[in-house]
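re: ur question from the group chat, yeah i did fold both. here u go
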Amino acid sequence: MRILSNFDTRFDDDCVDEACAEYGKGNISFIRRDKIYIIFKIVLPTIGWLSISLVLVILAYGSGLGRALWYFFQVFIRLIVCITWLYLLVKVTIKLIDFYMDFTIITPRQITSYDQSGLFSRNTRSLDIDKIKSVRVYEQWIIRSLFNYGTIVFFSEWDDQSGDITLNYISNPTKVAKRLEEILQTWNEIVNKNK
C-alpha cells in the first residue's frame, strides 16, 4: 500500500521481484532484521516506561502532602506521564517502521540497503560487490550468542573504520555471510563460463 511517495509498504516486494528477474531467485539474498529487534527496541523499553509511569502515579496518589500542594503534584505527575507516553508512542512507531520497512538485498553485483526514516524519507546505500574489501560478523555478547543474532559490516576499499553498510539485528549472521560468498562464487563461475 502506498501511503506517501516514500512510504510504500510493497516496495520491498518490488525490489526483490526486480532483482529476481535480473539475476534469478537463487542468486539473490533478502535480509531483514530478526524479531529479537522487537523485544530489545520495543517491548523492553515499553515495559520500562510502564514501570516508571506506574511508580509516578503511585507517588502522586500516595504522597502525604498538604491538600493544595498534593493537587499540584498530581497534575504535574499526570502531565509527565502523558508526555512520556506520547514520546513512547512516537518512538515505538519509528522502531516498528524500522523493523517492517528496512531491508537489504544482496545480488551478485551489489549490496543495497534500504532504510525507511519515518514517513517522509528513505535512505538507500549501495556498495558494488567488487569494491568489498572485507565482511565482518559480530556476535560478541552472551545474549547475541543465545539468540543467534548479530551485526554484519561490509567494508569497502576506502573505508577501514565504520563500514559502508552495517546490518544490525540479523538472524544467523554467519550463515548470511556464507550465503554472500556462495552468491559471489556462483556468479563468478557464470561470468567466467561466458567469457
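okk and heres the other one u asked abt
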Amino acid sequence: MGKGSREDYLLRILRITEEEGIAKTNDIAALMNVSAASVTEMLRVLAGDDLIEYRKYRGVSLTAKGLAQAKRIRDKHQIAERFLMDVLDKEQGEAHEEACKMEHILSDESAKSMCRIIGAAEMSGCEVCGTECIKNASGIRLNRMSTGMAGRISHLKCDDAEKIRKLVAIGFVPGRSISLVNRTTNNGPIIFRMGESNIALDQDLASLVFVHVDQ
C-alpha cells in the first residue's frame, strides 16, 4: 500500500474524529469509498506503525504521532491549494484536485517557501512551519527601509491574490537579495536593486514585502 493511500486514511480519520471523537470502520469506508474489509486491513497497518489506536468494534483514534502527521498533510494541502489559486490563478476545483496529489509529495521546505509567498499568516497551529511560520516571521517592511539598506526577502503578507501575483511576477520572492537605491518622494515610488536590475515599486506594494536586513 502506497504512502498516499496511508495518508489518505489518516486524513479521513482526522476529519471524522474532529467531528465525532471516534472513527468507526464503516464511516471510514464510506468516506474512502472502499470495503470495510479494506479499511480493517489498513487500520492494522497504521496501528502497527503507532499512528492510530484501534480496537475492534470500538473504533479508531489517532495517536499523538498520527495526529501530527495527519495535520501536517492537511496543512500542506491547504498551502498548495492556496498557492495554486493565488499565485497560479487556478480555479478552486482544479486547485483542490491538484493539491490532493501535491500534499503527499510536497517537502516541508517547499511548503514553507509557498507559505512565505502567499502570506498565509492565519494558519493557526500549522504542523509544517511550526515556530517558523510566517505569523512569527520577523523582518522590516520594504517601504520602511532606508536608502542603502540591504537584505533578503523574508516573506510576503497580503490577502489580495492579484497583488501577490504581481509581486511574484516582478521577482519579489522569498530568499532574493534586495537593496534600496533611492526614494523619489515621501509618497512616490521606491527604487530597489535586485540582481542586475533596478525596480521601481509603489509604496502600497512595497509595504507587503518583508526583508531580513543585513547587519
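fwiw on the second one: The chain has a mean pLDDT of 86. The longest strand covers residues 150-156. idk if thats what u expected
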